[in-house]
Design a protein that fits this description.
binds pyridoxal-5'-phosphate; four-stranded mixed beta sheet; globular; 38% helix; Aspartate Aminotransferase, domain 2; 15 strands; alpha/beta
Length: 445
Amino acid sequence: MVAPADIVQKSKDYTLLSWSAQGAWNPIPIERGEGVYVYDAHGKRYLDWSSQLVNVNIGHSHPHVVRAIQEQVAKLCYVEPSSTTGPRARLGELMAEITPGSLTKTLFCNGGTDAVENAMKIARLYTGRQKILTRYRSYHGGTFAAASAGGDPRRLANEPGVPWIVRMPDPYAYRTPLYQGRTQEEGDAIIADMVEEIVQMEGPEYCAAILVEGYSGTSGVIQPSGVYYQRLREICDKYGLLLMVDEVMSGFGRTGEWFGIDHYPSAMPDVLATAKGITCGYVPLGATVVSDKIARYFDDHTLWAGLTYSSHTLAMAAGIATIEVYRSENLIERSREMGKVLRQGLMDLAEKHPVIGDIRGAGLHQLIEIVKNRDTREPMSPFNGAPSEAMKKAAAYLKSHGVSTIVRWNMIFNTPPLIITEAQIQEGLHVMDGALSILDEYYEG
Ligand SMILES: Cc1ncc(COP(=O)(O)O)c(C=O)c1O
């Protein structure tokens, strides 16, 4: 057996960590996972309060999915994409069942980034136009085009990126001045009017699509109301653009619906890109789902996109089994119900801790924004800056008390697996209470 210290040292010596300077990396060597918990090589247990990267929705080591993978491995792991398999046929059918509106045909790939890349290619091929409109506060993936599409600062070091991305303003009610004295819906309508004006100024005949997250994720769960999505749908229809939703993070029950966009039935998308919860990371998989109309276009036009591992047989089997788990354990409804418990718990913490400036989200997709002062709303850690001492201390407290989650700038993610119980939510909230007490010491109210 390799000693835990060796695992860490060799990982540091021989592997690179994404999105980080390498020197300060001090990883926990994780050995196994079960349900909502992961265990490190010393046997210490962590409550997985973020579902890793908001993807392990069914929890760790689910026996149904483990068995399906084991059975598939023994039979066939892979065939090239122009052959087909029973698992591919079935997962395609399931995707048509669970995705909204007339979304019917799926191009399978390896993860969220390539699902978004494929969506953008499809929009450009289908419309014959080039530009894609996206939000500043969004993330769509790590490759050049997907990173350019996201407005998130992770794009900055590799700029200029692809030249055909156009950015739209964000419906950030908590921080954008135009929302002051207005309701969320009123502010969202103004932001949507600005989007229409951007389309006009960019030339509608050059604009292929609007791409937005179905429910905002790592940029801060900055979610508009249905007014915004309905107006986007109208703008797309009026000017001949496709409406594309990125459901990589918000899909598969995370927000209490199958997909984030399901909260807004009047804004059915033409293209949906997803990944993460489709297999919960048991095997990597991404998917780009298109409407009937777009699918028909490609009956006699070449789909200029492809990957060696498109429709990977093992990933197909994992996807089927994962969707079976969502269904048999009613995890979409469970996310909604447990989401209420989590939300109430966070609201109770906000009564006690003035550092909680805002709580946003739906289902088991909840974020708290930490501020130095509730009146000024000054963030406890600056946007895109090094983490403040306060946030670092809070993150260290969570970790040392056995709660693993994402702490980014002044935001703390509360996005546990959808199988979490009420008692386990209380367990996480109890530790969060302690972390917030540390943050309260830095409050400047
Ligand atoms: C909304 C969204 N889109 C795309 C991606 C990229 O997915 P992946 O990291 O699987 O390539 C992510 C990853 O977090 C995401 O949250």
